[in-house]
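My current task is to audit a protein record that another person submitted. Thanks in advance; the entry in question is below:
***
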Amino acid sequence: QVQLVESGGGSVQAGGSLRLSCAASGRTFSSGSMGWFRQAPGKEREFVAAIMWSDGSTLYAISAKGRFTISRDNAKNTVYLQMNSLKPEDTAVYYCAARARHGFNRDRYGYGDWGQGTQVTVSS
């Protein structure tokens, strides 16, 4: 059974930084990809970034490009999301998700396993 545990959320002022972590366990993570999504109150869950376990290729949402960096540590089965220049509109619960199939997917339904989420609050 796959388990994904996020950490690193918190409250920060606009312009600040946070680093989220997602520790994965329960199967071999040498293939497939991992994604970060977020969901603000009253809004749909939206794609933020994704990374391939095999070669570290990345994909970003337009809102994240240039400010957020996704990375992975294969030895630790852990994925990170470094978030810089945070804005109040980045406030949301951030979820990591695991995709067993090859290739990226911006759609939440392309991911079979999800973490419990971690709150990120950015004040102006």
